[in-house]
Amino acid sequence: MENNINLVELLEYIEPSFLDYQDWVNVGMALKYEGYTVQDWDDWSKRDANRYHAGECEKKWNTFSGSSSPITAGTIVKMAQDNGFKFHKEDVAFDWNSEIGNKDDLVVIDKGWIETSEFSIPQKWNPVEQLTTYLETLFEANENVGYVTRSWEKNGKYLPSKGLCDRTAGRLIQELSKCEGDICKVIGDYSEKAGAWIRFNPLDGKGIKNENVTDFRYALVESDVMDLGRQKAIIEELELPVACLVYSAGKSLHAIVKIEAYNYSEYRERVEYLYKVCEKNGLIIDKQNKNPSRLSRMPGIIRNGKKQYLLSTNIGKSSFEEWKEWIETINDDLPEPESIASIWDNLPELSPSLIDGVLRQGHKMLIAGPSKAGKSYALIEMCCAIAEGKKWLKWNCTKGRVLYVNLELDRASCFHRFKDVYTALNWNPDNINNIDIWNLRGKSAPMDKLAPKLIRRAVKKDYIAIIIDPIYKVITGDENSADQMAKFCNQFDKVCTELGCAVIYCHHHSKGAQGGKRSMDRASGSGVFARDPDALIDLIELELTEDVLKQQEDVLVCKTCYKWIKRFSKDNEVSQDDLCSARTMLELSAELLQSNTYKLMIEDIKKVKDENKSRTAWRIDGTLREFPKFEPINLWFDYPIHRIDDTNILKDLSAESDTHSWKSKSNKKNVKQRENKKTIETAYEVCKIDGDVTLKMIAEYMEKSEKTIRNYVNSSSDLYMKNNLNLEREIGKKREISLFPSREIGKKQGNFPFSLKS
Known about the structure:
CATH topology of the largest domain: DNA primase, PRIM domain
Number of domains: 5
């Protein structure tokens, strides 16, 4: 032949079992016309095991004597194209000088160059050891094993009966150890003409059908139409994840291949993939072996004078996932460049939104921030928002299923956090069935190993978002290496692509002050972290002043007072102006509430003040790839949730800065003095309502020592000590004279207490 076309390679795209008789004949005629041999036709025809008959191809081949309109290579090319074959360059017309260079991504070995692999059956063997090793390799001790020793004959062929499944692998192994080398004492007598069979997947002990399989662990790869040495060679070259390789004492090897499927549906998909790869690489297999309850040949048995022998265990790749990844990465699977002109008028649809104005489904998002920023709580809030179809912070979320991959918390703490967040948000758990949690604390693996496991578990769940918290637990390589981190981040792309869902993860800030940095420069490690995701959400802490904290405290005091007043249906006596003053609300509460009730309210106020002291303030900035940049968002981390600052009190606060230490200390000192002065003056005004203000009253109100209060007073230009006990205010040069004698803490005038303990 003067052309470079390999028609045998094109035959890989044509399944003979799908052709009618005439199309099968046409393939043979085309091969003969183009100079191929009858063996090429015969080898391909063997793939149709049900219809193949030895010698039929040669007999038919000899009748092809030529024609005025011959069947040529074009027939085979057309059949291959109809089944998915594409030329290497689609814009180049196919001619006899063209080379077909489109290699199938599932083909890993050259069938034309594969050499047979030799193996020999030992003369001396131990049947008990053979079967024991087989059972130990495939089964757990408590799993039921199905096997068949009785058979019946049909047309000279021995077929298995229903068999037994009442004993566990552990029991069988124990009995084999005591049988004194007589395997029949354990499994029963069998016909040496027929041999014996065994099921390679565990059963429930109630039956032998597919529904009785308890774990879809293995599949059978068997060929009856190929040389034994060639079968073994292809199995080895393909690196099939074989748990046990058994010689059937007939025409085939039985490879018990690790499938490790989650359910029957996944089992079917994986077996189809396995068989497809085997066939594309020249292993012509029996497709009737797909069922998980299928029988295979039992090792340690004599059949027609030959040994059903266990050749090897645990060869090839260690798992189906590892093997599949190897198969799919061994060849270049990159897409071809596309001309934008071809799709200009029919552009692909954009991925739907997941978080409005921030993130699309199928994209990636990073949340970065320092410790104690509540990043995990922010992610949990997001999970709940997506599950319920509600707002996360200020953005609407698409409702759907979400997976939270927990790498840090213990299982109980993680579940409790979700309930705490729901409670704090005051949301009803109407759609908590949309939230799955994968608890991996102490069990996490590097991301390149975790990604395939994650994909396998999530592929059937229809998640619209997967949240990984935190990523430092799964980082592979040096986080400061751009090259290594690029490879690491590619694992997130793989998850997004395979599952069609968003991947959201969090990472910590680098060391040092962050106020002077851009948001994308704050995340620890290589800049790849911040530049790789489609959306970056960055949290930075705000420096709270005493004024802001006191203002927030007053707001909380007002709210608490109003809550108690409203509880007793006296809120009609409260005006809008009253709600703006903590002092006024306390006075009203003292007037409107009973003494005991008032005391309970004061205790409630104490709790609110304590909670206020623990609050932190944060600013969210972001960098978005798909949407316009949003204005920074200020919020409180009010454990366990974040709340938007709708009062704008945080708007003018500065983020943690890089100010020189000496300057920072000096500024903090001046600010502290001003705040102390304002605080003590406010305390004075509150305590003065009931008469003389004592040093002790101010000290109790501010929860400070009397010595500290004296120092505050001495630094104030408005207050002075009178008789070393009472405090008075100077108004200009005149002194305000107290009209009331000093009273003990705890007594009251009217219905207002003298002491307001914080």
